[in-house]
Amino acid sequence: MAASKNPKKAKSKKTKEAGAEAKKLSALDAAAKVLAETSQPKACKELIEAMAQKGYWSSPGGKTPASTLYSGITKEIATKGKESRFTKTDRGRFART
User: Fold this and answer.
1) What is the chain's alpha carbon radius of gyration, rounded to the nearest angstrom?
2) Would you say 41 and 93 are in contact if contact means Cβ atoms under 8 Å apart?
3) Which of 2, 57, 58, 82 would disulfide-bridge 51, Cβ 3.0–4.6 Å?
4) Angle (CA) 97 57 39, round 5°
5) CA separation for the pair 59, 30 (Å, rounded)
6) What is the DSSP string of 19-66?
7) What distance lies between CA 34 and its chain's CA centroid?
8) Rounded to whole angstroms, how far apart are CA atoms 72 and 65?
9) Measured CA distances, 38 to 6, 8, 42, 69, 96 (Å)
10) Least confident of 3-7, 51-55, 61-65, 89-93
11) CB neighbours of 28 closer than 8 A, spacing ≥ 6?
12) Distance between terminal CA atoms of the chain?
């Protein structure tokens, strides 16, 4: 029996290089970057729009990206506490720490 090659492991050199160059930010990283560039707190919907406009991150087709981002930010605040990149300034509004 001949061993078959796994197509997932056999990537070309160009594919590996392109993946390293075009590393996408996560939604949380992109939100932190947008908030660092602005001095005003923003709502998650505003963050999603700014992230897409600047090309940092766009939703891969989810129906509620703002809700998902809100959940991720509040989870980071709860788990990391003072070490979190975000702070809640008002109901539904966040700023960069």
Assistant:
1) 18
2) yes
3) 57
4) 30
5) 12
6) HHHTPPPPHHHHHHHHHHH-SS-EEHHHHHHHHHHHTS---SS-S-HH
7) 11
8) 10
9) 46, 41, 9, 18, 9
10) 3-7
11) 69, 72, 73, 76, 85
12) 60
Cα dist from 69 to 47, 79, 83, 90, whole Å: 9, 15, 18, 16
Global confidence as pTM: 0.75
Which structure tokens are listed for 46?
């505003």
How far apart (Å, rounded) are the C-alpha atoms in residues 23 and 75?
A: 24
Distance, in Å, from the CA atom of 10 to the CA atom of 88, rounded to the nearest integer, reads 45
CA distance 11 to 19: 11
Q: What is the pLDDT of residues 39-54, one digit of tens each?
A: 899 999 999 999 999 9
Residue for token pair 């919907």: 45
